[in-house]
Amino acid sequence: MSLGSRIRELRTQKRLKQAELGAIVGLTYVQIGRYEIGKAKPAADMLSKLAKALDTTADYLVNDDVSDPTIAAQLTDRELLKQFKEVELFSPEDKHLVKTFIDAFITKRHIQELAK
């Protein structure tokens, strides 16, 4: 996936119009459009602003190899990301407990969806 495709994908996931993203980072919708179709590439400082506005990293935006699931996965909820970073510091037993709780909530959600 190209840089422009990633910008477009993340922008649409956040339900932003090109003009709205442009206003956040200080550009026009025309320039955002150029980035998205590959007619222009952002400078490093603009790439950083775009990544911040899209709740991702500059590395994700420019990295062509998304075969690695850890690169492809983007956690946009900053509070949840902070919590997961804290969990990484837990003992193996505590990590297992957190994973068990998460699995229970996911299973509950799947059952609720099946019941609809």
From TrEMBL:
Keywords: DNA-binding. The keyword Membrane does not apply. SUPFAM superfamilies: lambda repressor-like DNA-binding domains. One of its GO terms (cellular component) is cytosol. PROSITE patterns: HTH_CROC1. SMART domains: HTH_XRE. InterPro entries: Cro/C1-type_HTH, Lambda_DNA-bd_dom_sf, TransReg_Diox_bact_type. The keyword DNA-binding applies. GO terms for molecular function: DNA binding; DNA-binding transcription factor activity. Residues 7-61 form the HTH cro/C1-type domain. This is Helix-turn-helix transcriptional regulator. It comes from Mucilaginibacter robiniae.
